[in-house]
Amino acid sequence: MTIKTHTAGIAQAVVLAALAAYPLVGSEFYVEMVAKVLVLGIFAMSLDLLVGFTGLVSLGHSAYFGVAAYAVALIAPEFAPANLWFVLGAAVLISAAVALGIGLLVLRTRGIYFIMVTLAFTQMAFFLFHDTALGGGSDGIYLNFRPEPRIGGWMPFDLAEGSQLYYFILAVAVLVFVGIKRVLRSPFGRVLVGIKSNEHRMRSLGYSTFNYKLGAFVLAGALAGLAGVLYAVLFGFVTPELLSWHESGHVLMMVILGGMGSPVGAVLGAGAMVALEEAFSLLTTHWQLLMGGVILAVVLFLPGGLIALPGRMRQLIKSGGPHE
Fold first, then answer.
1. Where do the TM regions start and end (predicted)?
2. Domain residues of the chain, as ranges?
């Protein structure tokens, strides 16, 4: 284990300990905000699996996020709590199935055509819920009860209690983070990185790159669906805006802000985005202009994202300053 890896492991353990302790000291509002960051962190990690590791820039990732959120609201009974494990499994499977169907079509395109076709599909999903009674139109659907994690007659925890919901979301985020890291270290993950680097060479080596890209696409869609389920449970309502291309652009900005090709960067980008939005909205109603300026600054002056900032600082210190 290198010193860099050891230091990163210690830093991640410290952050995890701080997140675990936060509900003990934070107010209810900020505990919910951190839970939102964790949900969006899962969403960003799922997109980074495509953008940062496979080289597939998608503007339609919100489709799986929103479809799963709506699945929770539509499956849940109106006058009684649903079973968490049932709605979670069903919603994630639905989002994975949607990603499979879309992936079989869009992965036959490349470059700008891929981006535009994914955008077209997410807009189709948006209007399906926005313009029909299926999703309650523009008003969306409310979740009357948070699902209950029943296992037979046993309730291991209660999502109606804020801190327990927070710890459930934290546990899922940690599992997703560890799972993605293991996937990326596996032969499957190595092939994805190879596809991003040089797909023609990987194909010449005998790899069916289409199947690998499809696998990554479905996995990313399922994880985005998982984030959508947690979002619906956390906030208790879903609207068509969750499926809009704006939401896809929003999560893409998180990945860029934090740093592509790093699960840590994806979570960092989600946290930075939520924090900046909160701070800028207190300053002006035109906070989107400030946010756009931050994204431009990161792209121009810190192309590796916030995750690359410590390394950039070390280089500046070693070189004696920016003039070097």
1. 6-25, 37-57, 85-106, 112-129, 165-184, 214-239, 251-275, 287-309
2. 29-243
